[in-house]
């Protein structure tokens, strides 16, 4: 178990180092942020002053060396634009994105699993067919378009929810969250739904396929032959078996949900890390871009680790030591 | 004779498939008395499992019980609602299956699967149910049952898993146990052990057994009576010794001839020529005609049931035993 965790962390460190290097060089190659940062009226002297202040006058290997040295000491550099530590900048925005992604996950699970179960148990029914048709739409329509349609329908036409922003937040254990205030919640629902739709379609398909397969197994027949009620057979015997693939896939998808929040956050002007990334790329704010991507890798690793642990907890046949990563 | 605990009358089970309606069980009738063992024998696809499942009311769409009656202690199960059937399943009538590797839920502990089976029918505390589960495991010969209760199915061998399934099936001392080839997937030695254990346990609790198998040698050692199925029909029925020594139906005769121990050493194994017919393309008369050495023009008509002496019956125009014996 411990060996397993250590090995996983070692691999992660390697990925982190390689990725940070590549991104660092790539952003350097793309262009000169000074031209974007400085005011159009700035003269040569001012430009040089900015270049020097940001340390961009030094050769690439020196810049990179400094970056590595600082990174090893926990300093990922200061944003060119905001002149604040990049990490602080990101961490300040992280709760908003995490809240968005987790809410979307909850929506995807709590709506997706019951719908998938229904479609799996009654594949030939009208309801079953409708659910599957809906999930195809969820899969195939572009995410930003779904977002725009949600805004159009629920904000513009019906006026139920605001079209953008994060709304009022309240501190929970020192972290600002919006689901505790009515205003915050009403701001959260549409973007969370937007982010959830694709995953919900995925959960529905996984659950349906799993249900159909599990229902044919002998152990379901045996459970019924024991005289168990329908709710016990489905709620325990079926659900516990289909949860294994669902948890695995969703865990892996949580990472991509945080990453893909970029689109949703842009559509809904939601102040999370995704929007920060887009803005930073536009301004070639290298420290923020690199820090963002490094943080994303760390997050992926942690999530995958947690998924493996949950997986081992619900499937007694899995032994982590055996799972050669 | 006393009233049978289970009496199946003219049971017809149909599956609607793309090729049309398939009749998997076609007018099957049999009786089982308390404490009796009935062997249900036949080739793969002859409808044995479907018959067993029908008795428990476990035929799912696209299948259905089209007609017939299943009387458990005189009450017709085909007329009962799903809720009423649920209360009978596991308590009055139980079933075990062929593959012990797949009959237990892989993600639930053995105690969970046993306790839920007890509490599905009796209002007892978790603790009391647990104690009973442990005793039931001990009874089927599982060593250190207390520790085994908290194991998962994959931590048991195949034979042990089948013992757990048997323990679960007998928890409520059911009137009837349908055993669908429960030893087929096991080693011969374990097969023999389990056979004798089930026989003994069933005798203790007065449970009638319907033992489904394709292996005549199992039936020879275990059953009191045997019913031979072919293409959804019972083609011959009688006391085991009687049927095995003097088969009336050419199909039964073929089955007996293909039991390895009955063949002389060095000679090729006798086999019934041809293949199990597809239900979609059965001949109009006797279903066995295409493979039957005695078939003639008469066999283009469906043979009726001929009763011959003590509980003996068969469906054949040209039986291998003298028809004068018929009562
Ligand atoms: N769900 C189903 N849908 C369609 N046909 C079915 C279904 N289940 C069973 N059948 C048909 O019913 C017939 C009898 O099947 P059954 O499982 O009872 O055979 P069996 O005698 O138990 O054979 P085996 O020895 O292989 O277990 C088969 O021809 C099969 O095609
Ligand atoms: S009825 Fe005819 S075909 Fe059928 S088993 Fe008897 S002899 Fe053979
Ligand atoms: Mg079968």
From TrEMBL, chain A:
<feature type="transmembrane region" description="Helical">
    <location>
        <begin position="12"/>
        <end position="31"/>
    </location>
</feature>
<feature type="transmembrane region" description="Helical">
    <location>
        <begin position="173"/>
        <end position="198"/>
    </location>
</feature>
<dbReference type="Pfam" id="PF00528">
    <property type="entry name" value="BPD_transp_1"/>
</dbReference>
<keyword id="KW-0472">Membrane</keyword>
<feature type="domain" description="ABC transmembrane type-1">
    <location>
        <begin position="94"/>
        <end position="311"/>
    </location>
</feature>
<feature type="transmembrane region" description="Helical">
    <location>
        <begin position="100"/>
        <end position="121"/>
    </location>
</feature>
<dbReference type="GO" id="GO:0005886">
    <property type="term" value="C:plasma membrane"/>
</dbReference>
<protein>
    <submittedName>
        <fullName>Peptide/nickel transport system permease protein</fullName>
    </submittedName>
</protein>
<comment type="similarity">
    <text>Belongs to the binding-protein-dependent transport system permease family.</text>
</comment>
<dbReference type="Pfam" id="PF19300">
    <property type="entry name" value="BPD_transp_1_N"/>
</dbReference>
<keyword id="KW-0812">Transmembrane</keyword>
<feature type="transmembrane region" description="Helical">
    <location>
        <begin position="242"/>
        <end position="269"/>
    </location>
</feature>
<dbReference type="InterPro" id="IPR045621">
    <property type="entry name" value="BPD_transp_1_N"/>
</dbReference>
<dbReference type="InterPro" id="IPR035906">
    <property type="entry name" value="MetI-like_sf"/>
</dbReference>
<dbReference type="InterPro" id="IPR000515">
    <property type="entry name" value="MetI-like"/>
</dbReference>
<dbReference type="GO" id="GO:0055085">
    <property type="term" value="P:transmembrane transport"/>
</dbReference>
<keyword id="KW-1003">Cell membrane</keyword>
<keyword id="KW-1133">Transmembrane helix</keyword>
<feature type="transmembrane region" description="Helical">
    <location>
        <begin position="142"/>
        <end position="161"/>
    </location>
</feature>
<feature type="transmembrane region" description="Helical">
    <location>
        <begin position="289"/>
        <end position="314"/>
    </location>
</feature>
<keyword id="KW-0813">Transport</keyword>
From TrEMBL, chain B:
<dbReference type="InterPro" id="IPR003439">
    <property type="entry name" value="ABC_transporter-like_ATP-bd"/>
</dbReference>
<feature type="domain" description="ABC transporter">
    <location>
        <begin position="6"/>
        <end position="256"/>
    </location>
</feature>
<dbReference type="InterPro" id="IPR027417">
    <property type="entry name" value="P-loop_NTPase"/>
</dbReference>
<dbReference type="GO" id="GO:0016887">
    <property type="term" value="F:ATP hydrolysis activity"/>
</dbReference>
<keyword id="KW-0813">Transport</keyword>
<dbReference type="Pfam" id="PF00005">
    <property type="entry name" value="ABC_tran"/>
</dbReference>
<dbReference type="GO" id="GO:0005886">
    <property type="term" value="C:plasma membrane"/>
</dbReference>
<keyword id="KW-1003">Cell membrane</keyword>
<keyword id="KW-0472">Membrane</keyword>
<dbReference type="Pfam" id="PF08352">
    <property type="entry name" value="oligo_HPY"/>
</dbReference>
<dbReference type="InterPro" id="IPR050388">
    <property type="entry name" value="ABC_Ni/Peptide_Import"/>
</dbReference>
<dbReference type="InterPro" id="IPR017871">
    <property type="entry name" value="ABC_transporter-like_CS"/>
</dbReference>
<dbReference type="InterPro" id="IPR013563">
    <property type="entry name" value="Oligopep_ABC_C"/>
</dbReference>
<dbReference type="GO" id="GO:0005524">
    <property type="term" value="F:ATP binding"/>
</dbReference>
<protein>
    <submittedName>
        <fullName>Peptide/nickel transport system ATP-binding protein</fullName>
    </submittedName>
</protein>
<dbReference type="InterPro" id="IPR003593">
    <property type="entry name" value="AAA+_ATPase"/>
</dbReference>
<keyword id="KW-0067">ATP-binding</keyword>
<comment type="similarity">
    <text>Belongs to the ABC transporter superfamily.</text>
</comment>
<keyword id="KW-0547">Nucleotide-binding</keyword>
<dbReference type="GO" id="GO:0015833">
    <property type="term" value="P:peptide transport"/>
</dbReference>
<dbReference type="GO" id="GO:0055085">
    <property type="term" value="P:transmembrane transport"/>
</dbReference>
């Amino acid at each position: 178990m411990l060996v397993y965790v250590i090995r996983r962390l070692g691999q992660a460190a390697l990925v982190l180092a390689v990725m940070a290097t590549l991104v660092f060089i790539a952003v350097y190659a793309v262009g000169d942020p000074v031209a974007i940062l400085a005011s159009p009226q700035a003269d040569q002297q001012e430009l040089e002053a900015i270049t020097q202040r940001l340390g961009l006058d030094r050769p690439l290997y020196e810049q990179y060396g400094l970056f590595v040295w600082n990174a090893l000491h926990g300093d990922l550099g200061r944003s060119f634009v905001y002149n604040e530590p990049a990490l602080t900048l990101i961490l300040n925005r992280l709760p908003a994105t995490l809240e968005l992604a987790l809410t979307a996950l909850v929506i995807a699970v709590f709506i997706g699993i019951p719908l998938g179960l229904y479609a799996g148990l009654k594949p030939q029914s009208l309801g079953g067919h409708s659910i599957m048709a809906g999930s195809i739409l969820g899969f195939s329509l572009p995410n930003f378009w779904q977002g725009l349609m949600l805004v159009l329908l629920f904000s513009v036409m019906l006026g139920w929810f605001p079209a953008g922003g994060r709304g009022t937040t309240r501190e929970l254990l020192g972290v600002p969250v919006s689901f505790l205030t009515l205003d915050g919640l009403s701001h959260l629902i549409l973007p969370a739904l937007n982010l959830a739709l694709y995953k919900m379609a995925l959960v529905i398909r996984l659950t349906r396929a799993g249900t159909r397969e599990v229902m044919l197994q002998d152990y379901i027949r045996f459970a019924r032959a024991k005289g168990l009620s329908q709710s016990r057979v489905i709620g325990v015997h079926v659900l516990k078996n289909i949860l294994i693939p669902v948890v695995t896939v969703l865990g892996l998808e949580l990472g991509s949900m945080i990453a893909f929040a970029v689109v949703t956050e842009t559509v809904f002007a939601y102040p999370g890390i995704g929007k920060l990334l887009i803005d930073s790329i536009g301004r070639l704010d290298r420290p923020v871009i690199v820090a963002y991507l490094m943080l994303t890798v760390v997050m992926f690793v942690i999530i995958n680790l947690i998924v493996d642990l949950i997986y081992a907890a619900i499937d007694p046949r899995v032994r982590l030591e055996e799972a050669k990563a | 004779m006393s009233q049978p605990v289970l009496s199946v009358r003219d049971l017809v089970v149909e599956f609607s498939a793309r090729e049309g309606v398939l009749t998997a069980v076609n007018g099957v009738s049999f009786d089982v008395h308390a404490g009796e063992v009935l062997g249900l024998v036949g080739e793969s696809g002859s409808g044995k499992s479907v018959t067993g499942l029908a008795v428990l009311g476990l035929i799912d769409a696209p299948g259905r019980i089209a007609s017939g009656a299943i009387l458990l202690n005189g009450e017709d199960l085909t007329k009962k609602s799903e809720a009423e059937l649920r209360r009978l399943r596991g308590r009055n009538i139980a079933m075990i299956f062929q593959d012990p590797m797949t009959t237990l839920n892989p993600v639930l502990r053995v105690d969970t699967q046993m306790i839920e089976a007890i509490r599905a029918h009796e209002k007892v505390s978790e603790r009391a149910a647990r104690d009973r589960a442990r005793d039931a495991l001990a009874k089927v010969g599982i060593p250190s049952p207390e520790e085994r209760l908290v194991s998962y199915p994959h931590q048991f061998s195949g034979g042990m898993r089948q013992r757990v399934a048997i323990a679960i099936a007998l928890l409520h001392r059911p009137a009837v146990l349908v055993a669908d080839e429960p030893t087929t997937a096991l080693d011969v030695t374990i097969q023999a052990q389990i056979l004798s254990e089930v026989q003994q346990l069933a005798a203790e609790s007065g449970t009638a057994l319907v033992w489904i198998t394709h292996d005549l040698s199992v039936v020879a050692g275990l059953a009191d009576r045997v019913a031979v199925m072919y293409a959804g029909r019972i083609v011959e029925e009688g006391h085991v010794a009687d049927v095995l020594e003097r088969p009336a139906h050419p199909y039964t005769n073929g089955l007996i001839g293909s039991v390895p121990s009955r063949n002389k050493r060095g000679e090729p194994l006798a086999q019934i020529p041809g293949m199990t017919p597809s239900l979609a393309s059965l001949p109009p008369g006797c279903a066995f005609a295409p493979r039957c050495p005695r078939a003639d023009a008469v066999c283009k008509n469906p043979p009726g049931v001929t009763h011959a002496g003590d509980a003996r019956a068969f469906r054949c125009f040209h039986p291998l035993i003298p028809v004068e014996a018929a009562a």
